[in-house]
């Protein structure tokens, strides 16, 4: 059956006005170009409800009973990985036959929708407890304390790593035009390792790590880059360095080097990238680099350095200024991974 176009509110009101003026349904229909049956229906609704507005339409009854809705909602709340097929089978055993689409629509009305599961670090109970302990101990630290921290880390940048997320505007059947495609190569086309640091005052040094980093190389990087960065960033006396728990960072020789240099180290809970604003700054850099579309490793290295220099100090400042929110989120999520 073809769905007819609904009459406007003005047209419905004119029908009532003409009816009150004494005109017949046929005459009204001819004058306004509306079917006689439609005119009659509008007049009857007006006589019954004293309005020409659309009334509430109940629609078809739901195929799943309220009890069935509670059952499938409770099931997915306990086990979010339950499939629609499992729910269809559960209802069928209870005497209700529905489709997967009905399951989706029903759960959507309950505020639930099917999404891709996020990939997050594996947290063991010991990690959860350490994260909660860190968040609670530092929750009331003044903002000035976080401004005196230098955040340091390493990251891998792939030549074609970020381009896979790019979208294009194109016409139909133009999906293979060179402008609308993303060239790919095996293994990402190569990559390079970077070490960098920053504080609330802005980016510190960024260097390319050549070869496999070991403890000796890491201590050399700290000597040649961390200390000059602290000086350039004008860190206050007693500044603190943050680093993760990589074996190179926690090696006895590295701890001894830090002790001799009188550098304090922020005690860090393992498996906590969401607590490290350094990750956000790496993401900022990688997006900027991807927009430049480097075509080889040499260009990739040069562009990384250029874009690092362009990152405004305000970006770093904002990452540190909002640090308390990260701690609050960890506590609210009972130690598990947060949106950061």
From TrEMBL:
The residue ranges of the Transposase Tc1-like domain are 71-140
GO MF, one term, reads: DNA binding
- List this protein's GO terms for biological process: DNA integration; DNA transposition
Q: Which residues form the signal peptide?
A: none
List residues of the Tc1-like transposase DDE domain. Answer: 149-299
- Protein known as: Transposase
Cross-referenced Pfam families: DDE_3, HTH_SB, HTH_Tnp_Tc3_2
- Where does the record place the Sleeping Beauty transposase HTH domain? 1-52
Q: Taxonomically, which superkingdom?
A: Eukaryota
């Amino acid at each position: 059956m073809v769905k007819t176009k609904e009459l406007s509110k003005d047209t419905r009101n004119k029908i009532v006005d003409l009816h009150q003026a004494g005109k017949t349904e046929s005459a009204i229909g001819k004058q306004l170009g509306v079917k006689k049956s439609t005119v009659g229906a509008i007049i009857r609704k007006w006589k019954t409800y004293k309005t020409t507005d659309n009334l509430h339409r109940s629609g078809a009854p739901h195929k799943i009973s309220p009890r069935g809705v509670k059952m499938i909602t409770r099931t997915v709340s306990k086990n979010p990985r339950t499939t629609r097929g499992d729910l269809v089978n559960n209802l069928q055993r209870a005497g209700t036959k529905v489709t997967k689409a009905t399951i989706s629509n029903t759960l959507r009305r309950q505020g639930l929708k099917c999404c891709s599961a996020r990939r997050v670090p594996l947290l063991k109970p010991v990690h959860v407890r350490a994260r909660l302990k860190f968040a609670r101990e530092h929750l009331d630290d003044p903002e000035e304390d976080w401004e005196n921290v230098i955040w340091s880390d390493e990251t891998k940048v792939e030549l074609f790593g970020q381009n896979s997320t790019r979208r294009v505007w194109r016409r139909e059947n133009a999906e293979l035009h060179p402008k609308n495609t993303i060239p790919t190569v095996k293994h990402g086309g190569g990559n390079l390792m970077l070490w960098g640091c920053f504080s609330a005052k802005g980016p510190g040094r960024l260097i390319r790590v050549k070869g496999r980093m070991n403890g000796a190389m890491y201590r050399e990087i700290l000597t040649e880059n961390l200390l000059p960065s602290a000086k350039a960033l004008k860190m206050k006396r007693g500044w603190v360095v943050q680093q993760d728990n990589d074996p190179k960072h926690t090696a006895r020789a590295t701890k001894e080097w830090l002790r001799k240099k009188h550098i304090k180290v922020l005690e860090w809970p393992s498996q906590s990238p969401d607590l490290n604003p350094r990750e956000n700054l790496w993401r900022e850099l990688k997006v900027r680099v991807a927009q430049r579309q480097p075509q080889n490793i040499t260009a990739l290295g040069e562009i990384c350095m250029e874009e690092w220099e362009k990152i405004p100090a305000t970006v770093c400042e904002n990452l540190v200024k909002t640090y308390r929110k990260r701690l609050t989120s960890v506590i609210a999520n009972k130690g598990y991974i947060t949106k950061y």
